[in-house]
Write a structure and sequence with these properties.
Number of helices of chain A: 13
Shape of chain A: globular
Radius of gyration of chain A: 20 Å
Structural class of chain B: alpha+beta
Number of strands of chain A: 20
Number of helices of chain B: 12
Shape of chain B: globular
Number of strands of chain B: 22
Strand content of chain B: 25-35%
Helix content of chain A: 25-40%
Radius of gyration of chain B: 20 Å
Largest interface: A-B, 36 and 35 residues
Helix content of chain B: 25-40%
Strand order of the largest sheet of chain A: 14-13-10-6-5-18-19-20
Oligomer: heterodimer
Largest sheet of chain A: 8 strands, antiparallel
Strand content of chain A: 15-25%
Chain lengths: ~400, ~400
Amino acid sequence: VSHNGDRLERYAELAVRVGANVQQGQEVFVHGLVEHVDLIRALTRQSYRAGAAFVNVRYEDQHMRRATIELGPDEALTYSPEWLNTWEQSLAGNAQLGTSGNPEPELLSDLDGERVGRAMPLEAAEIARRVHGEHSVNWCGVGAPTEGWAREVLGEPDVERLWELVAFCFRLDEPDPGSAWREHLDRLDARAAALTELRPDALRYRGPGTDFTVGLLPSAHWGSARFRTAGGIDYVANMPTEEIFITPDSRRAEGTLRSSLPLSLSGQVIRDLRLTFEDGRIVQVDAESGAELVRSHLATIENADRLGELALVTKESRVGQTGKLFYNTLFDENATCHIAYGFGLPYSFDGEPDEGMNVSNIHVDFMVGGPELAVDALLPDGTEVPLIRSEEWQLAA
Amino acid sequence: MDERLERYAELVVRVGANVQPGQEVFLLADVEHHELARALARQAYRAGASYVHVRYTDGHVRRAMIELGPDEALTYAPEWLKTFTAAMSGNAMIATTGDPEPELLADLDGERVGRAVAQEIVQIRVQQLSENSVNWCGVGAPNEGWATQVFGEPDVERLWEKVAFCMRLDEPDPVEAWREHLTRLAERATELNELHPDALRYRGPGTDLTVGLLPAARWMAGAGDTSTGIYYVANMPTEEVFTSPDARRTEGTVRSSLPLVLLGQVVRGLELTFEQGRAVRVEAETGADLVRSHFATIENADRLGEVALVTKESRVGQSGTLFHDTLFDENATCHIAYGAGLPFLFDGDPGEGLNVANMHVDFMVGGPELEVDAVLADGTEVPLIRGEEWQLA
């Protein structure tokens, strides 16, 4: 086994054992782009080594998506094949691994943004959301370095350099990555517990182009991406993860938000996104590029125009420390503070989610953090408590 | 955009599967075939497909299952895959071949490799074949690994030229060339149907075999209609006329004349001995365990399902290339298949002579020295093939 082959297997093993935490006798459902073939094969091997009963693999292909949007009939855009619905249903009680890292982030940039935004198998997305809402899947999303992705990040197809960056974010350089991850998640959970204890009624964001207030739900708690299934399996849903997050009150958002990093989304890149909120809903969308795609989401997908997640990330983030823009939400959202429009996350609730949690068939994270962003907690009595200044954590824990 | 690739894909979509407006199209391809799969998707939408599904398969995922998975995984058919396969009924399907790593599984236990068949999936396909409910086409997808297997070097361009020649893509009007070619083959099938042979007799190096035929089974060329009347060409290239034999009446020995790439192993020098229809002895230079595993674990895999005649006019044969791919090599020369017979060759109930199995494996038996005779009901022997040339009419 070559050195690089060994890294790939160690990476896959960490994703399988610490990330999804595949259990003996579980089926594993792996999905990712055809260009991620090397990693997907390694994830398959490591899943079987971890005792998987069967590993299902579904290769996705952006060029198929492009053909559907460019040449297919209108009905094809939102069509959910029965087999895909069955795939999503089969996740219940099993493990799921997804790979990301777009080899051609602008493949769809010349297509009609409205059609690109509309192109989603709605029924399958809804089934997936429901199954995940029942806390019945231990899952993990990880990055898959490719030439195209490396070109986007580094300006040249230096996959080896991208692998080094990804491995650093993955804590693969640690002598014992498994225990490094445990310690890291303990730190994030302590931060989340301190913030939950503070019981803010709202968060206030102020920064360049941003002046925004969003309400919080009393029954929601802050947490890291270390989750537990209803059956008691602990897993880490994103690797890397550097955030603590909460599902906000989707009825209470006011003001304007400006994204601080480009967002690679569905084969287009959204730059300098500016959203204006009234009574919880997005009423205006502007962007330097990609505005049509976002407007299409908001126009065609119910409740896409409400918020589903607030997440706080500080400068200790390994992703942030790389100083790189990854053009991959999994990474970039862990470099800095972010917010998501679309569905809320049931992970924020111990029992039934509050009715303030947004229900939608989409969830799109975008980055708002940066050195000049100030985030405050607003307590019920009106007190303002600083949470983040200059990307540093301001609370005790 | 690669113009040859698009023309190739268009020919497959329009002449091969003959995708109809409003049909869904199912693409089955190795992950290494994604360039062709993408072109097929584009051409399918241009032909009016309502939706194009793709399922990429991966030899390495299969290898991991056989090498590292539990026993039950080998034959497991996931529910989503059953749903996918069943949805092909009434729709179009295109499958690509051209193994990027033909010996990927060569070091694995042949018995496990042979057993690793999701039989419930195969059953659905066998059912669809017997209902003739899918207009489908199998085509080659040149890639580096396949080119290396054929030429000893990863010369994909050279392989593309060979494949394009076999596909008649060099003709000024490939669609018209295919029409003429299929008409010639259909005439040959008609001649055999009029002759009504009771059996075929094969004689050649290592081969002395008699195979009984069924009066109800037609000879056919590689094109026909679905049950709803969509004319399609199931294999491109195709150079054969074929029928399903009487699975109960095979006697003698047959030796394969070309290597057979099968499930990640290469079967060389296969020699089968038949008694009362069943293979009673399997020998081979390599891959014998894999074939024995089929016979031991899959019901009726040890009986014959197809006999096919190919002559030297074959473009595949003319290319002078051993493709190490059944789709091509079986169209270079005469071949025989063990496993499932072909129910669409019968009008009405095929009866007990048609073999039913969850597997169909073609192997090549033809060559310059092979003689094939039709044995008529009265005992007369009529030469069909000598020196790879057609002897009738």
